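Notes from hallway chat w/ T.B., transcribed later so I don't forget. T.B. wanted the structure written out for a chain they're using in a teaching module, and asked if we could keep both sequence and structure tokens in one place. Agreed to drop them here.
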Amino acid sequence: MFVGILQFELLVRGSGSLKDKRRVVKSVKDRLHREHMVSVAEVGALEDHTLAIMGLAVVSNSARHANEVLDHVTNKLRGLIDAELGDTRREIISGQPVADAGGDAPLWTDSERRDAEDRS
């Protein structure tokens, strides 16, 4: 499993208020999620009406695919009309497959599995 992380700044120069900034941020978040199936959140500069610090994550079974998604997202961010892309930072994290993480141990005990089935 691979997790691609992109941290980026959006400069919202035309924003006169936090409401203006939030409109732009929400639009960007919704569009990226819809078009690239990524998770996006505003993670910093929450009270600055001209700057949004954002975090984005994608999970994939291939580092190459995760990098391609981050490339597409970065290109889309460069073409924004309502905001300008500032600094970016990306990272790909590799995680152990579940089967390798605990040896032959099952993910759930029989009791936990029954409890989950009873609730559904």
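Follow-up for T.B.: The longest strand covers residues 84-94. Might be a good example for the class.
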